[in-house]
Design goal:
single chain, alpha+beta, Muramoyl-pentapeptide Carboxypeptidase, domain 2, six-stranded antiparallel beta sheet, three-stranded antiparallel beta sheet, 18% strand, ARB-07466-like C-terminal domain-containing protein
């Protein structure tokens, strides 16, 4: 069973080519706004803003899921809350929190049809099941850039639930504590890294 709200450290590590990670020191540019979350319960909020929260499974001892603020264009009632099904990412070799973020991205962004997972690499993130690559359709178009921005914002706003370490998109390195220009590219996909949580045993429950 997935538990939410792990602490996220303030300093990241490693500086290398390809998918390397520089230390995030500067206060970064503002995170892009999320416009359309998926499948969450609406709760009371200030006019003009809807707070989304998941409290599914509380009676069964299941920890609450993620929360984000956004518009109501994908609002669903409580009966739509459910365990996250497998998404488009191949899950073999992925760790628990990486599976969670991959499934959540698939559920929230059905326009995503390709998510890469475990692959050979000089750095440990992909080989150890700690990272996914969310491939963006038409990544150089205005729509593609906006979609990538939404996915980054979605991941960062739910960083505790996903135990997110970082995201890389369009030469910017994001962490829950800020972001900076990275020199790492990633113009055709959003790279998301978690802290893993260990490898699944088959008894896990992945919640929205």
């Amino acid at each position: 069973m997935i538990l939410a709200a792990f602490a996220v450290p303030a300093v990241m590590l490693l500086a290398a080519g390809g998918d390397g990670y520089p230390v995030a020191k500067e206060t970064a540019r503002a995170v892009p706004e999320v416009s359309e979350p998926c499948c969450m319960e609406v709760v009371a909020s200030a006019p003009g803003t809807i707070d989304w929260a998941v409290a599914a499974g509380a009676a069964d001892g299941v920890s609450p899921g993620y929360t984000i603020a956004a518009s109501s264009s994908r609002a669903y009632s409580r009966q739509d809350l459910r365990v996250l099904p497998a998404g488009v990412a191949p899950e073999s070799g992925l760790q628990i929190k990486t599976i969670l973020v991959a499934r959540a991205v698939s559920a929230a962004f059905p326009e995503i049809h390709n998510i890469g997972g475990v692959r050979p690499d000089a750095l440990r993130w992909h080989p150890n099941g700690l990272a996914i690559d969310v491939m963006i359709p038409n990544p150089g178009s205005a729509q593609g850039i906006a979609l990538g921005n939404e996915i980054v914002a979605f991941a960062l706003k739910n960083a505790d639930h996903f135990d997110l370490q970082d995201a890389i998109w369009r030469d910017v390195y994001y962490t829950p504590n800020g972001s900076r220009a990275s020199g790492l590219g990633h113009y055709d996909h959003v790279h998301l890294t978690t802290k893993g949580g260990g490898y699944p045993t088959g008894s896990e429950m992945y919640l929205r």
